[in-house]
Amino acid sequence: MSEKPPWRVAIEQFERSIGAPIEDFIKTDEFADAAANAAKGQAEMQRKLESGTTQLLHGMNLPAASDIAELRAEIAELREEVRELARALRPAATTAAATTAEAATTKPKPKRAAPKPKPPATG
Predict the structure, then answer these.
(1) Domain boundary assignment for the chain
(2) CA 23 – CA 18 distance, rounded (Å)
């Protein structure tokens, strides 16, 4: 089965015939300039599309992706602040819990019963 099918032979011949000229063109400054211009154009188009979409969504009083990204970042910051506060309060909470536990395990001293009043003297 060393013989290749005719369709594959045709494709390989076609690739060889155009491969070298394409590789030579890709190495030129003109191709590099064209690729850079294409990338800039795509980035500009993307920016305009995002701007237009944002304006449209804000016009309908809806959040845009940038608004949601800002909210996510703010939520992440708030979560970190809460964690820091929890860490800062943990020793104080442990001390307060220990004090409460100690108070609960310590039995209060029984109060002395008040002496009974003497009956009034008759006589």
Answers:
(1) 7-62, 65-101
(2) 9
